[in-house]
Design brief:
The protein has a single domain, classed as NAD(P)-binding Rossmann-like Domain (Rossmann fold), CATH 3.40.50.720. It is α/β, with parallel strands linked by helices and 244 residues long. Helix content is 48%, strand content 15%. The structure holds NADP nicotinamide-adenine-dinucleotide phosphate.
Length: 244
C-alpha cells in the first residue's frame, strides 16, 4: 500500500485530499499544526471505512526541526513515502506599499520555503526508492496579476517555477513533480476575501460557480495515480475556465 504525506490536512482542500486518497486505498499521513479531536475522529472513521492507515502528524511547517522529525517518523512507521502533497498555505491581501518585509517573509516561509524544505526531506527517501510523486498546490494567483497579491501571488509563482525545476532534476530518479493551481474554491481561505471580488470572479467564470475542495482533490488524485504515470512538470489549472 502506498503512503501519502499531505500537509494542511485538517480542513479545506487538504482534508478533501485526505478523504480522496484514503478512499482510493492509500495510507494517509495527515499533517496539521494543532491537535483536534474532530480531526482525529474523522481520520479514525476514514481508516475504518477505507481499510487504510489514516494518522495525524502534528507540526507547524515553518518549524524545520519539527518537520524533519515528523517526516522521519512517518518514514519509520510507514516504511516509505510514495506521495507528498504540499497543500498547506496562507493567504495575504495587501498592497505593495502597505506590505512589510516581515509580512512578505511570513507568506514565503509558509507557501514557498517550507514546502521546499519538506520536499527535500521526502525526496531523499524517494530517490533511494527511485520512485515518487510530489504535488504542489499553488494558485491561479501565481499566474495572473492582481492588485494586493504581492506576497501571496509571488509566493505561488515561485512554487510553480520550483515545481518545473524539480521535475527536471528529479525525473531521473523516477520522481514526478506536478503543480495544481486552484481558482475560486469554497474554503475558509476564500471567506476572508472581499465580497465584490467574489462576484467579479463568478461573473468571469465560464462554469458560473465556485469550485469545491472535492473537485480539486479528484484532480490531485488523478495526478498522483498511475493513470498519470507520464505526467511531470505540468501545471494543472482548475478554475472553472476563468483563465481561459
Ligand atoms: N480556496 C481557494 O480558493 C484556493 C485557491 C487557490 C489556491 N489555494 C491553495 O490551496 C491550499 C489549501 O487552501 P484551502 O483553501 O484549503 O485553505 P484553508 O482552508 O485556509 O486551509 C489551509 C491549511 O493550511 C494549513 N496551514 C497554514 N499555515 C500552516 C503552517 N504554518 N503549518 C502547518 N499548516 C499550516 C492550515 O492549518 P490550520 O488549520 O492550523 O490553520 C490549513 O490546514 C493553499 O495552499 C492555498 O493557497 C486555495
Amino acid at each position: 500500500m502506498k503512503n501519502a504525506v499531505i500537509t494542511g490536512a485538517n480542513r479545506g482542500i487538504g482534508l478533501s485530499i485526505v478523504r480522496e486518497f484514503a478512499n482510493n486505498g492509500v495510507n494517509v499521513w495527515a499533517c496539521a499544526r494543532r491537535e483536534s479531536e474532530g480531526f482525529e475522529d474523522e481520520l479514525r472513521r476514514l481508516s475504518k471505512h477505507a481499510g487504510v492507515i489514516a494518522e495525524p502528524v502534528y507540526f507547524d511547517i515553518t518549524d524545520r526541526a519539527a518537520a524533519k522529525s515528523s517526516v522521519m517518523s512517518v518514514y519509520k512507521k510507514g516504511g516509505s513515502i510514495d506521495i507528498l502533497i504540499n497543500n498547506a498555505g496562507i493567504s495575504d491581501e495587501s498592497l505593495f506599499l502597505m506590505t512589510s518585509l516581515d509580512q512578505l517573509e511570513t507568506v514565503f516561509h509558509v507557501n514557498f520555503f517550507s514546502p521546499l524544505y519538506v520536499t527535500q526531506l521526502v525526496a531523499r527517501y524517494m530517490v533511494r526508492k527511485r520512485q515518487g510523486c510530489i504535488i504542489n498546490i499553488a494558485s491561479v494567483s501565481g499566474i495572473e496579476n492582481e492588485r494586493g497579491r504581492i506576497a501571496y501571488g509571488s509566493s505561488k509563482a515561485a512554487l510553480i517555477f520550483a515545481g518545473k525545476t524539480l521535475s527536471m532534476e528529479l525525473g531521473q530518479y523516477g520522481i514526478r513533480v506536478n503543480t495544481v493551481c486552484p481558482g475560486f474554491i469554497d474554503t475558509d481561505l476564500w471567506a476572508e476575501r472581499p465580497g465584490e471580488l467574489k462576484e467579479k470572479i463568478l461573473a468571469e467564470t465560464p462554469l458560473g460557480r465556485q469550485g469545491t475542495p472535492e473537485e480539486i482533490a479528484k484532480a490531485v488524485w488523478f495526478l498522483a495515480s498511475d493513470a498519470a504515470s507520464y505526467i511531470t512538470g505540468s501545471n494543472l489549472i482548475i478554475d472553472g475556465g476563468r483563465l481561459a
